[in-house]
């Protein structure tokens, strides 16, 4: 089981005695790797090692520092200043006032709730459908390449454009969604999708699911193909049923992929105001706002101070989530590994 | 070999640098950067033609027109202005002039334009709009937006009416009779989405027209807000009935494009909109030219209507490198053929006195604008406080609250009380 | 090896995949059909699922009234150069992060993740000022540099996964044979990782190809516009030019779809080699 063939280079076979892939949560040391048959690094060469590390990291670090971190840090100071575009003659330091303004805003609890709903209700169907597609795409069939290219295309469209496209499709009088539902006999009267807060929320989530399934499908499909066939053969010999194979072999095997993909998607969906902005602009009655669309609204009012504070709150929330997510997925993996070893 | 790769990479980077660099002419030609904000492809094309004409007359001036997409334009322009780089002439609107001049991003042209021969050709409204309260000129208007009622002549006639509605009550009556949900025929293209607040205010202003402050459409003569007036509630009563009885249910979320679409595809009979829409509706294949026209803005029980004129124009950035040349460009755009062409093709209320004598403005859909100009006592032009710093905050607040009323989560009374309080407090604390 | 499929299983699979295909493709069909209608026929009621008159008017208009060819060329150059450079740079950083243990590593990885959380607008203003100082505003090279920086974090995380799946014995053997580490990386590991690198390149390319805000902020003149900016230009405050926009959207999606079709095997194979086992 540990004997794994290197993909992409079938003529080089190496037995590395690696354990089933361990998650290497960002920030975590990976002691298991070292003990699993890898030669420990020679510590004598530390100076040279340091140079290699620095030299190889330098280009990436320079680019990211100059064009991502520098502007961001410089921009973040707006969060601690009175920074309103309607009057920039006074940009005095106000400490945490902007953060207070965000957290004390009457809209804050509702929008936070909406954000949670938006993330979870988009993520779960994306995950389930993406998983199903990936599972079923493993089996080869004619035109599979074409099929993949077709179902992967939503990912190639920008979020704002998707928003606008779906806004017209969900238009209650001239939209194609109502027309199709009526033709299918599912509804009698056109539904005023974007005019009613709950329906509008449903509509933007449908659009987001449509858009986001692709990423899960690609990532999971890729991960599934990394499961060696002999694992399944062994399971079959054991007489494991389909459901058992899925839950006891497939999912545990690609769990680290799933964990990382989910993490990335949570961050991206959280930071995905484009679609909502194109589709409802946060309405009706501001009830489809999530934190990041609300932030755009605040910038449009010119209050960059408050908007930046909200932006940093978003970063903080996501950081806390990431840390917990990484700890949870790592802990579980370590525990299971211990169980497997004993 | 390692260095070989590195050299190669450097070489590529250098080559990219060379390719990216643009060469600047050094023969004394000045290149103006001009930025527009209400961008649309047809207008950009027209502007380029006008600019080409200007360049022909001024061979030493080149104009580089920057046309960011409308949705991102304001943010981009603010960044450019803040950096103090890259803008000479720019489009300034009544909603942006306040904050931009406060931030000292705009150049006051009043001294340079003293004694300009073009002033006498401008309409009174245009001259007035070109000066702010401190008599500074941050932009010269290129035209005006004003409301008129687009209506379907055939549907009105079929419903048994001889004339289009002249006031809000008549509109409600006609629109309600035309509405037939089963046939997907609706009365009024209601504005419930972006911009909803403005239309509510237009209705209220018509009801308080007798006592309105001629200098501020949101104030009464006695200094209180129009929202505190008892007539305001009557206005809302009629206005929201229009939604319940005579509009498509989804119009809760209708903004500009949906409204215009709802009218041009034939599904609604009435539309309250800017003259810009004339061109769009004129291209409609769903309704023919003889099926629609425009009527003057609706009056209230006072028999008067208040025309909430909106405007935009061309100004100069304070950090502009070539102010005299930019000024020449603005003068050129604000006079003669250039201005007339621009207002005609964009369906704007013209800034030139002479333009209203043009046959173009006397016939068809434009006739109602002539009617309105001819009766300034009935169709009173009152400036709206669109240049206050809190205008965008107000727009978002008012739009959201109108939707709350439409969804039954707020009563019209609460709406008015809240708006009255908002403006009264802003005026007290503001300048 | 996949177990044999039962008849109900097959029915479930085929119908599910077919249903999802329909759902995904319908909006694409809808834009394509809209783009092929005559400009005046776009909004007719009842809704026409097949255009009465097919017309290429919207497409010819793109090239006649707008410099759409120029926009495509700009997008191609910017996205291809930025994606290639970002992939190359990320290979180096990913390699180090996969192969070495060092103290600041966890901090670096967290910093990589944080770049995905930052709302772009915070950085836009200072970025514009920086690019003004560097004299790189309205310059394709400037946009390329920024795109490279934006692509690096995710690309590094992705490529790091590939490296971790390749035993280090491979390049160590090469180094013992006298190759420098740099050459070992590009001569020995590169071929092994080719599918993964192609996948990373495509991710980068699509991200740059679709990027709007940075492009709007940093580019001024019409000659330097990229496709997303042009696409958004069809939305004006009072009207959306659906005909031109859907034609432009189809032209925008086509290249990425072709890329996907050609590379879908590489993508899956590439990711298979471990990107996602991060």
Automatic annotation (TrEMBL), chain A:
It is a multi-pass membrane protein. SUPFAM superfamilies: MetI-like. GO terms for biological process: transmembrane transport. Residues 112-325 form the ABC transmembrane type-1 domain. It is found in: Cell membrane. Belongs to the binding-protein-dependent transport system permease family. This is ABC transporter permease. It comes from Wenjunlia tyrosinilytica.
TrEMBL record, chain B:
Keywords: Signal, Transport. Belongs to the bacterial solute-binding protein 1 family. Residues 1-19 form the signal peptide. The keyword Transferase does not apply. PANTHER family: ABC TRANSPORTER PERIPLASMIC-BINDING PROTEIN YCJN-RELATED (PTHR43649:SF34), ARABINOSE-BINDING PROTEIN-RELATED (PTHR43649). Pfam families: SBP_bac_1 (PF01547). This is Sugar ABC transporter substrate-binding protein.
Automatic annotation (TrEMBL), chain C:
InterPro entries: BP-dep_ABC_trans_perm, MetI-like, MetI-like_sf. GO terms for biological process: transmembrane transport. The keyword Transmembrane applies. GO terms for cellular component: plasma membrane. It comes from the Bacteria. It is found in: Cell membrane. Belongs to the binding-protein-dependent transport system permease family. PANTHER family: INNER MEMBRANE ABC TRANSPORTER PERMEASE PROTEIN YCJP (PTHR32243:SF18), MALTOSE TRANSPORT SYSTEM PERMEASE-RELATED (PTHR32243). This is ABC transporter permease. It comes from Wenjunlia tyrosinilytica.
